[in-house]
């Protein structure tokens, strides 16, 4: 049996298990849990057999360029899979802990209304987890990365009739999308640095990496910094740490597997995978180490004053991951892998027993609790001690920092764009787009000075549209149309670059058109049933229209460029045709992609999730 075949089996088992779980009736709890057991259990056993075989046969690195999804002149999008010690450790920890969680969840989730939905999402997460850890290039990794992101949103918002789980799911997803900017820009500049889709196996070629980075040192630093932003967002490092305790609104098993053990350590995985790229960039290594150290200090201080068990565990985990960042920066990859495994198992255990901890502590307080007479902070000057205590209670205002300097400016800017109305879209912006198309077909006659600025101008128009969609509170239909039009303006902007042909435009826009029409149809359909529909509050229509909610979610994912439509390849194709010197264009388009994803998930959450707008439904608890 060849190694190539076994790598395929590693990915096919979770995919088949996920598809089978979708087909099982939601009333058959035992069958759903058995299907999950068989999927994860067989995957774990296959890993043990393969791992022993791999160790006894020289444990060489396995790199598999599987198949090409799209090829055009100077561009190739292909899936590449990779197996080495990093994959082996992550696979061992992931498969064993996922098996443990499924056994625990069978009884913990018993008779929950969303029992099937939980196990479906768990298997979908496991599929994304395996795609990520087996990925051999950033393009393949991005497929798994996107799956992990949407699974995070769905599991945090599992109690979808409650306010806080849905709101916190949106908060976490916004941070994940910030991380996506870094990954997109890293792939873009990587295309120009190596003039092809570089693999992680290629990065192990020191000569190849060193030759390019010697003559393009600033480009190498830019790629490394983008990777660091992505890793910091995913692993809850500063300034993104505050999302981690908010993610604990989901069921305890999902908190354990996502935010205690597996998903939260993917920032470490990304740094380990790309270590060969930045190991000789000492400024980047120092920055990674300082980021990890500052996060460890701040997260430890915050954890010590938390009143919630889950919040204590969340910040403790972030502090430990900060130490792992330091180990990676020092080049101690084996130490980092052992530390990851130990932290993952410990946090999983702590979160799984957390529902019982409160009762234990109550008994301790009544019978054997003896407070410490002196702590290390008592040796500090009182003003400093009290100031640090208050800062820790307020979680160092990390939420306020993100809101004040990132989200509020975007929303305020969007609210000022009041000239975007359905009427102005058809009377002004549609003719403006037709003028842009005319300029595209006659660009040979346009002066070079004007031609240079047209792509940025059109990209800015698209960005303004998606900003308005993100801040819109009244007209949900207009918000949806603005997001669709943003993609058309992006395609027009990049079309002015000589290498971007019409076939590439069709790949990018084909998924947008289909998802846009489907989503618009179901928005109109739900509006015909419910009459009143806006984005100022949560409506909770999934309660009465679950099938419509599912189809609309798929339309939202298609419009974000999720890997279920050609648009996912089209987005990477877009960036491969943005020139190396067009930093402004690349940043504007990447920001518009990120904000349109946030706007779409916000529309889905506002229309279908949260407490039901109709008063005859039972009012749920605010929090889980």
- The value of Rg in angstroms is 25 Å
Number of domains: 2
Strand order of the largest sheet: 1-2
How much of the sequence is in beta strands?
under 5%
Q: Helix share of residues? A: over 70%
What is the mean predicted local confidence, pLDDT? 88
What is the overall number of helices? 25
Give the SSE string: HHEEHHHHHHHHHHHHHHHHHHHHHHH
Distance between the termini: 48 Å
Q: Sketch the major β-sheet.
A: 2 strands, antiparallel
Shape: globular
Number of strands: 2
Uncertain residue segments: none
Question: How would the blueprint of this fold be written?
Answer:
Blueprint: H1 3-23, H2 29-56, E1 62-72, E2 75-83, H3 85-108, H4 115-134, H5 138-156, H6 163-194, H7 200-203, H8 206-215, H9 217-234, H10 243-246, H11 252-261, H12 266-273, H13 275-278, H14 282-303, H15 309-329, H16 333-367, H17 382-393, H18 398-415, H19 422-441, H20 448-471, H21 476-495, H22 502-530, H23 546-560, H24 567-576, H25 583-608
Give an overview of the whole structure:
The chain has helices spanning 3-23, 29-56, 85-108, 115-134, 138-156, 163-194, 200-203, 206-215, 217-234, 243-246, 252-261, 266-273, 275-278, 282-303, 309-329, 333-367, 382-393, 398-415, 422-441, 448-471, 476-495, 502-530, 546-560, 567-576, 583-608; strands at 62-72, 75-83. The protein has a two-stranded antiparallel sheet. It has two domains: 3-363, no CATH class; 416-608, no CATH class. Helix 4 runs antiparallel to helix 5 (138-156), helix 5 (138-156) runs antiparallel to helix 6 (163-194) and helix 14 (282-303) packs across helix 17. It has 624 residues and is mostly helical. Strand 1 (62-72) and strand 2 form a beta hairpin. It is 73% helix and 3% strand. The chain is globular.
